[in-house]
Amino acid sequence: MIINSRVFGKSDNKLIILHGFLGSLDNWITIAKKISDLDFEVHIVDQRNHGKSFHSENHSYELMALDLRNYIEHFHFDKASIIGHSMGGKTACYFALNHSNMVDKLIIVDILPIKYKKDYNLIFRALSTIDLNSISNRFDIDNHLKKFFKDKLFISFLSKNLVRSKDGSFRFKCNLSSLINNIDNILDQINSNIFYEGKTFFIKGLNSDYITDEGLKRTKMLFPNYNLIPVEEGGHWLHHEKQKDFFNICKELLTT
Question: Structure pTM?
Answer without folding.
Answer: 0.96
